[in-house]
């Protein structure tokens, strides 16, 4: 054979192959021009026409060319982008398997000179267009406001054959910024809460959303005539926020009727929620207990049977609708009955740790998901990806988002709801978490690290490096120290110690410098910094070694190192329009009220006449800080020491609409009404719940002052209300005499105590007033106008003041009605005597509810009149939660330094049964983040009469507080009452 011929033939073959290779794929755009047409089906639905418009618009942004949009009529264009189930697909032999694609899958394929993007209805084609723009042209939609649309004048595509069908039928990153409809559609999230319209292909529509029992069968409508519809607990049918009796046939009938009515009103609904209320209190009637026994003891048994019956009743009329219920808290364990095919069980991970992958850490939850996946064809997950008590707190869980979703999918889960900071922008790392969740929910095996770094570059630009290093710094700390993060973790939980805060701030300083010339990117970096600043502000403590003074119109310690941090934090919150710092609705303005005095100090208003000088601090509960008698330059009300618990909102004269250190009005910032006069000022405050408090403080012509207070109910419903006033007087020593009702008495403190309390009936002091005389050379007389329940006089051996508390009776305040109280205080001359100095040992210290901190007072805790309590009042906690709702910040001034005390609580319970726990308790060290004296009382040991519970032994040191909490066991413990705490010195 001729070698030259062989070589020539080989060269021709190589050239031919090279030409074929060079012509593979298509040139969509060349130098800003395109011969292509976008072709939609003539019967295109709204989402397919929107897909064409989006493709046209983004291609124009990318290359400058505007591709015409036409329908599939007439001849096939020479070069076409064929969208949807197009009439031309068969002609070009596109081979799209629509049966495989379902409602959201798609195929992207080059066929000859044509590009095919075809998907199922209603969302498949739109998702295909976005995927083409993303995977082939580099587009990204990181946030609703930040995207990446790369410019390129020539677009050349290789051979494409890409088919994607989501493994999850329901995908919801439940974050505020993820509600944006365009963002959700572009990231292929079919979220029920997103603003997805028909053009986006609609969405998963949940009717009722969650916790619907009381909506479907309202107690206020049915209970009075049919208590049997509701939970029976220890023989009593419960009214209120409990559960339904799920074996009652009328309850089933009413529920079915309600579900059908919902579906008539909302025919677009895919899913209807028939789900338990967000509490315990399940029914314990004989029928429900019998079903539970048949179901292997699972509380979920009656629920699944009930929901199955509802699902069966609607399936013929509404074959496209599923009934959703929860496997949540007491119903989390699977039963024996198999849910019907049109039932969705949404398993909730609320009890879990979210620092570590669920498959590795939580064997109990793993058992439950395995159990439900064997029973149920459609298991959904309600997952938690933030801390609900502090949305802006660092919550290092980015690295577990993918393994958790993979774990869910591995066990057959069909839908996932990822709950984040859903009420407002500004949640910690909210943009990044929402973006990554959308990517992971569409493709659980996606390249998360690539998505993460692209996000960092796209959102933070030149600052991507330090912001990413900050996130990894926080993550390494959580892993290295094995920190568990439940969904109610707080700023003191150890995930951000001071040394880590310093490193994080250094990284953000670097990041801000890198983007200082780019205002928009700088703002995004500052939003990312909010979590670190939030920790700093919420942990801000007063330096107890640095006295506070009044200089000019400011009461404070001088310059604060956190002032600049606070300025930036609140400015960024305002610019970002953040309204919720937690699920309870804490607004940044309210946080500013709480932390500003500790950081900036407080502005003061000075009232003055010839005899007296008063200093009023509106931002510190509107309190009178000091009263000075000009003659002799004597201080009647001195400034408190910075180590006083609750400082700086302590001391002086203040008022509240309840008990406890944080009672409404005690620490709120008041507004100044009008312009203060030289001798008077008017203050007002919104106390929440419709209550407003107005206070007028004025100097009198005599050497005295008058306070007039009015509590008004501006709400739409009647509510209980009362006023409590407290005055701290420096009378010069413990040998103080009280004159009231024509009698005199010495307010003597026992030798084995450091305090003594004397109580007088209200009428005694209201009718004749009272006078206190001490050794300092003056007396104070008070005349009260208004109904008074009691007046307390609290003498202290340690510290400069004696406290006087006036309490009005609780009354029901109708809408627009008011409660008023006025008091005039007059300074009288008295002989100056030698102050008695006696040795006191703090052998027994009793702490009443006035000194408690009550968490979410009026909702989770409070103080109630209780004639069986020692002082007629008891602190109270409902049994339907497990919050540390009663706390006492330990006041070291009342204790002997270095001594050990046995800590006890005098408690009683509203008992309903004997199962489970009644209370838990402990002593928490804020500085050490350690809990001492941990323990609890079981419901079996709880009594309705007062009992003394020993919490443990303690040597008080540093910043600590005693806490008590119910156990979220309302079915057995309706409420917990605390009369007082007792500390007995033991060594």
Describe this entry's structure for a reader.
Helix content is 26%, strand content 29%. The protein has 21 helices and 53 strands. Among the domains are: 26-165, Chitobiase, domain 2, CATH 3.30.379; 207-318, no CATH class; 604-829, Distorted Sandwich (Beta-galactosidase, Chain A, domain 5); 844-985, Galactose-binding domain-like (Jelly Rolls, Sandwich), CATH 2.60.120.260. The protein is α+β, with helices and mostly antiparallel strands and 987 residues long. Strands 28-29-30-31-42-38-37-34-35 form a nine-stranded antiparallel sheet. It has a seven-stranded parallel sheet with strand order 11-19-18-17-16-15-12, covered by helices on one side. Strands 3-2-4-6-5-10 form a six-stranded mixed sheet, covered by helices on one side. The protein is globular, with a radius of gyration of 35 Å. Helix 2 (46-63) links the parallel strand 2 and strand 3.
State the distance separating the first and last CA atoms: 112 Å
Query: The CATH topology of the domain at 604-829, please?
Result: Beta-galactosidase, Chain A, domain 5
Class of secondary structure makeup: alpha+beta
Return the average pLDDT rounded to an integer: 93
* CATH C-level of the domain at 604-829: Mainly Beta
Question: What radius of gyration results from the CA coordinates?
Answer: 35 Å
The helix count comes to 21
Shape: globular
The largest pleated sheet is described as: 9 strands, antiparallel
What is the second-level CATH architecture of the domain at 604-829?
Distorted Sandwich
Q: Are there runs of 5+ residues with pLDDT below 50, and where?
A: 1-23
Spatial strand sequence of the major β-sheet: 28-29-30-31-42-38-37-34-35
Strand content: 25-35%
Binned, the helix content reads 25-40%
Task: Work out the number of β strands.
Answer: 53
